[in-house]
Amino acid sequence: MKKKLPINDTSQAVGLDIALELANFITGKSNMHYGIWDDLQVNLANLGIAQELYTEKLFSYLPKDKHLNILDIGGGAGETANKLLKLGHQVTIIVPSPILATHCQNNTANKAKIELCTFEDFQPRKNEFFDICLFSESFQYITLNKALKKSKGLLHKDGKIIISDCFRSNVSFSTPYRPPGGGHRLEEMYNQINLNKLKIIAEEDITTSVSPSIDLEQRFYNTLGIVIKRVIKSYSNRNKFTFKMMRMVYVILLSHKKRMQLNDRLFNNSRNSETFELYNNYMIFLLKPYV
Length: 291
Description:
Layout: H1 11-27, H2 47-59, E1 69-73, H3 79-86, E2 90-95, H4 98-107, E3 113-116, E4 130-136, H5 144-153, E5 155-168, H6 186-195, E6 198-205, H7 207-210, H8 212-238, H9 240-253, H10 256-267, H11 273-279, E7 280-289
Parallel strand pairs: 1-2, 1-4, 2-3, 4-5
Antiparallel strand pairs: 5-7, 6-7
Helix pairs in contact: 8-9, 8-10
């Protein structure tokens, strides 16, 4: 029987639910990850294609011709897990959000095992080990050493860790706003790989392939900015007093810094692929423990 999950009505959860609905409306899927844009025109029409190419790239790191027991850590809305299930793999999804867990149930037709918890709190069944620990844009949200150490302990003897995520480059920044991207420092990632006695089987830098995702996102916000500016111009002319009161409330509710950040997001272009490529390395790692 399908387990009923708790409801989360926090602003973050509501925002996530809206984002998932938007993604589904635009692409027909609940993918929230970057896309690979090689030889693709950067527009909303190609977003779904770019995200599918990303998934194909990710799956190219899986062992071939084997049915695997996969731990999908931070599995989003379950789109990746659903594809893995269709390939014959067994999948356990870890998600910390009830909303995401519900999407996972729906997208996998309740065929995946869903763990509603953080990776840090996840407890496998007795004698349960995995062939693959998969981090697809979830690695950056977990303490670096803990992520590597715990996933290593969850593997079968020949198990592997696949990490596909954004890492900060060694270029420091002093900009007033946080540049696009994020994650752990790449240099520290290499240090922790060595400290946890993991071997790099393969690694790939796909930064320039995924960076146009930032341009597309910014164009979306700029379009919203154009719409908002046009509505404000029309409304302020026809309802001057009401608009003045609304503006006062806006100033009271948002700090100067928040207002400047929102203005930059809607009307400028400081978040772009060039900036992303400067401050980030988007990497895929295939790791295994030293025997």
